[in-house]
Structure formats: C-alpha cells, structure tokens
Amino acid sequence: MSVADPAAARTIAEVRASGDVPLWVHPEWAERFPFLVQGTTGRGDGDEPFDLGLSGDQPVGAALGRWRALAAGTGMETVAHARQVHAADIWIHRERGAPGIVVMDRFDGHVTDRAQLLLTVSVADCVPVSIVDPEARAVALLHSGWRGTAAGIVERGIHRLVESWQSSPERLWLHCGPSICGACYEVGPEVHAGVHPEREPPAGNTPIDLRAAIAARALAAGLLPERVSVSSHCTLCGDSAFFSHRGGSPGRQMGVLGVR
Ligand SMILES: [Zn+2]
User: Fold this and answer.
1) Each residue's pLDDT tens digit, 36-86
2) Residue 255 domain-assigned (yes or no)
3) pLDDT score of 4 more than 60
4) Are 101 and 48 spatial neighbours (Cβ–Cβ below 8 Å)?
5) What is the H or E stretch that residue 25 is in?
6) What is the DSSP-derived secondary structure letter of residue 153?
7) Cβ distance 129 to 177 under 8 Å?
8) pLDDT of amino acid 171
9) Cβ contact 210:148 at 8 Å
10) CA quadruple 78, 116, 45, 186: dihedral sign
11) Residue 113 lies in a domain
C-alpha cells in the first residue's frame, strides 16, 4: 500500500492550559511528555486578542509584548521564529541561541534537541505540525499549508530527525494542530494536485482535508498510526478560540514546541 489510510490517525481535542497565556495543549502529550512545552496559542479572552503576528498591520511593540509573555509563561529562555514563505526549508538549531526572541528569515520548519529553546510557527488556518522523538528528546515544528505540504515539508521534517539523531520513524510522534478543517477548506484543482499527486484532481473547487493528507504522508513515511494524531479544532468553523485567515482575521497564533 503506497498511501496509508488517513482515517487511522486519531483525533485529539487540545485543551486550554492554565496560566495567563492562551495556550492549547495536546492533553495526552502533556501527560506522556512532561519535558515538552507544546501546543498552539489562541485568541485569548481579553479585550485585546493575543495576536502574535509580526508581519501584519498591528504595532510591532504590542506583538512583542505578547511574545515576551509567551516566553515568560512557558518558562523558556529563547523563543525562535522565522518569516515563513510557504516552502519546505527547515533550520536545524544546533545551539539554543541568545536569550530572548530570535526572528530569522525564510524558514517554514525548525528542528532542535536544545533545551530552553521554544520553536514557533505562525498559523491562521495552515497546519502547525509537531514531531517528537522522545528518546533523543529532539523535536521538529513545521508550518504546513498546502504549498509546504505539497513541497514535502512533513517528509523533510521526519527525515531531519532521522538523519540528525538516528531516530527511526517508528519512535516518532506527530500531531497536526488547530487549523482549517476538511469541510471548510474549499480549494481549486491545483491544490488537490499538489497535496495528492497520486490522485486525479477534481474539476472544480472542492474541500480538502489537509490534516488527513499530512497524517497519511506521515504514515507512509513509517510512523505508527497510534502515534499520529490530528486536532479536532477548526480555526474557521470552530468556537473562535483561534484566528482564521479565511474567516477574515488578520491575527496569527503560534504553534509552539520545545524541550524544557
Ligand atoms: Zn471547519
């Protein structure tokens, strides 16, 4: 079988962690991997949304204040982010980096085994993909929209872990976080052709389940079905806990992942 069954991936509902920062965490991972900081930030419930976007119209000072709150709230020394370009380049952080908030250029994925380094990817419908090797305590965090998925960023993230830490795909855990669901994400044939090159694309606009496609790619790369999960939260038709680009929101949440 060349394409694994996407239905094999389990559906998980992230839960809001306690604390001032709106962070939605994978509850099973929280129990199984206490050495991780993991999850996706949300809108929050104050008058001012917890918008972490650095490239929109909001004043950078206001966003940076929230970034500092994210660092303080997660207890991480360094927080790394990169301007994303919907491609499949992944930066390997061999050092933790300077304390504070480090903004790099032009990467859609991050990999590290350094403690006290929080990786982040900006999303608002696209899929934040977290991959964990619990034995090596190495992690990968990917921004996987349809272009990145089509460009193979998920397979590349898995490969980076395998080649750098002698991981085997069977010992990796992968989760697709809050993003637009398979009912809401209506897209043209070119998107279907990019995400599912093995299939004949539909003639017109049709919904696509990006998370199911990512899960299928992970299983095809050798990950075990019981270790692959997808979020039940939709950024568009959900309970508005998250920003949605298609829903008209300019705000951005962050997928976050790091070793304490
Ligand atoms: Zn939806």
Assistant:
1) 999 999 999 888 999 999 988 889 999 999 999 999 999 999 999 999 999
2) yes
3) no
4) no
5) strand 23-25
6) H
7) yes
8) 96
9) no
10) positive
11) yes
Kindly give the pairing relationship between strand 36-41 and strand 23-25: antiparallel
Q: How far apart are the first and last CA of the chain?
A: 39
Pure H helices in 20-104: 27-32, 60-74
Distance from residue 195's CA to the centre of ligand 1 (Å) = 18
What CATH number has the domain bearing residue 183? 3.60.140.10
The mean pLDDT of 220-247, rounded to a whole number, is 95
Indicate if the pLDDT at residue 5 is higher than 70. no
pLDDT of 3 above 90: no
Domain count, the chain: 1
pLDDT tens sequence across 176-194? 999 999 999 999 999 999 9
Please identify which residue in the block is written with the tokens 């390997």.
92
Question: 239 CA distance to ligand 1 centroid (A)?
Answer: 10
Task: Tell me, yes or no, whether 1 lies in a domain.
Answer: no
pLDDT at 9 (0 to 100): 83
Span from the CA of 236 to the centroid of ligand 1 (angstroms): 5
Cβ–Cβ < 8 Å for 182, 169: no
In a domain, 163, yes or no: yes
Pick from 128, 148, 131: nearest CA to 139: 131
Q: How far is ligand 1, taken at its centre, from the CA of residue 115, in Å?
A: 35
Helix, coil or strand: residue 205? coil
Instruction: Work out the pLDDT band at 237, boundaries 50, 70, 90.
Output: very high
Distance of CA 47 to the CA centre of its chain: 26
- Domain that includes residue 218, residue range: 6-259
If you measure from the C-alpha of residue 175 to the centroid of ligand 1, how many angstroms do you get, rounded to a whole number?
A: 18
Ligand 1: centre distance to CA 7 (Å):
17
HSE toward the beta carbon, residue 111, CA cutoff 13 A? 23
